[in-house]
Amino acid sequence: GQQLNQSPQSMFIQEGEDVSMNCTSSSIFNTWLWYKQDPGEGPVLLIALYKAGELTSNGRLTAQFGITRKDSFLNISASIPSDVGIYFCAGQKGTDKLIFGTGTRLQVFP
Amino acid sequence: KAGVTQTPRYLIKTRGQQVTLSCSPISGHRSVSWYQQTPGQGLQFLFEYFSETQRNKGNFPGRFSGRQFSNSRSEMNVSTLELGDSALYLCASTSGGATDTQYFGPGTRLTVL
Predict the structure, then answer these.
(1) What is the predicted pLDDT for the residue at A68?
(2) Any chain A CB within 8 A of the CB of B56?
(3) Which residues of chain B have pLDDT under 50?
(4) Phi/psi at B100 (nearest 5 deg)?
């Protein structure tokens, strides 16, 4: 099935460091979403973006909707141990199905 | 407001059997989507139901089917289970509008032996 290109695939960082991950697509989307998934649980919505160029923050998280509508990035500042998990981007056009990225596995060491 | 609930949380079946998974959306949400998540393929869309009608469908074989009831609860059925059907099955709900974001349930972990 179709997936978005998400990078990096995994990250191992020290507590307190900033994190950046991005997602690219060959298709244009109207909506970009970022989710976090803990082991054995469903993805939890972190940030939703609806407009090209939009920059939205949620606490230590900041995400941007690329102006080409084909990419998005997520930044996490001052990482803490509970940031550990898998982060997924997802793109959507209208009411079409969500297309998910391949995921970025984040590991934070104290 | 209660979140999306899925039952059962864990299930073990053998090849050839069939299985039914259940999803109750957030109250007021009319759209339910189902996804299959495996380590190799990631999150793959199965189908979406809105107001009891299938609105979107992914590229899965006919062994995978679903339905939605008038109270928006949805069920997913997999017949003639194969080993490769072992996965985390997630459902997500929205109110159904174009800009509505999807909220996921905790998933049902299906293991096929």
Answers:
(1) 94
(2) yes
(3) none
(4) -75, 135
